[in-house]
Amino acid sequence: MAEQREIETKYEVGPETAAPSLAAVPGVDHVSTDEVFHLVAVYYDTDALDLAANRITLRRRTGGKDDGWHLKLPDGADRREVTVPLGDEEDAPEGAASEVPEKLVERVRAVVRGRALAPIAIVENERHTTYCHAVDGGLLGEFVDDHVHSVSLLPDGPEKQWREWEFEVPDTSPGRTTAVAVDKALRAAGGAEPDAASKLARAIDAEVARGPVDLPKKIARATAAQLLAAALAAYRDKLLREDPRVRSRGDDSVHQMRVATRQLRSVLTEFSGFFEGPAHAALSSELKLLASILGAVRDAEVLAQRFAQFDADGEFGGAGAALAQRQHAAEARGWTRVNIALNSDRYFVLLDAIDAFLVDPPLRERADLPATKSLAPLLDKRIRSFARQSMVLLADPACTDHDVHAIRKHAKRLRYASAVVDPVVRGDLRTEVKALAKVQNRLGEFQDATIARDAVAELAAETTDPGIAFRLGRLDAVEEFRAAQARASLPGMLRGLR
Hints:
Radius of gyration: 28 Å
């Protein structure tokens, strides 16, 4: 399976429009042409066109140099293409979606959620290709002149013919520079904005992709409803982006996916007064469970790295390594739970519920007020109240580590909530938000040291080796000192938030 970032621009052209000579474009030294290919692509999606709604296309193409399965995923304004050679679909297990390779199904499982993938369109294309080269022969970009015939396989779907140009460049500085120059030449020759975002959209005569939540040009005029909807949509999209990375155990993926669940939950809890009905509370509860499952992996991962550092200089005689090994085992157990959770009906129901919530958020009338007069004052009040309550709790001799952990969770929710309001935050409130971030980071230092002490104590209770027990005691003393330092600095930091 190969993967690359794709930067391409499409143009609508008439049947008789002449393509310009790209050799005359600034920056292009010479061009070369290729044979004419007859490409046949079968596009796949669910009955509800879930892939199309998420700007994803999946096709099986033959007839060219890149025969195979092509999965195109959104990557900001550009696209990332994942390819699987023909024949790999035979590796799909019994019951997998309509011969689509399991490697690709995994990348979109959070989008299709168990719904069957089936052919929705056939697109035949006579492709004429021209390559733009630099002086050294390096490829600057690829221009294609496509003569297309399509048949929609949807009920009462149309049959169409059209012509279009595409110019694709590698994700490099020279490639992007060439794209700008070629764009001017193609537009001057008659290339126009395409009628549809993709061949598939035109073939099935449907534009179903979700667009971003509309915000006013003057963001200060945004309503609470607009900012809440925009934040929920952005965090939902982040959750879906991280899902395939978690399934393939990508770097930092489980952490980022847990952050996305917490960000969603912070909107639903900290701004619960703007929502009516029970839906937001039910979603919050399910997101909390998902975050805890992801958290087991993340916490073990962090502790393993932390303990491994203790033995970097051999000072603790292998005690750190022993602790790290236990955390790696815990991490492996956590991954098993994550895999089960991400393939469960409960998870897919949660994703469907989030989508449904976003389609028609159950907002109260107060959400129609400007965010500067609703969300911002509420955030200011919540931060100040948090600071006062936390100082009282920390000053109580009976305050436990569990209580400090509760303060940390509250600070984290407020910090995530502040990101929702950030577009309209000004003046003193912006200063408060920055100070809150420092408080939350210090609370994180306390929590890391505290859970490290718990892990040390767990191993110490099981060991019968006096030498190991002694070294574990030294490790505990280090973490105890770190926790005490972090906790002692909190009252002064909180005082600035009142």
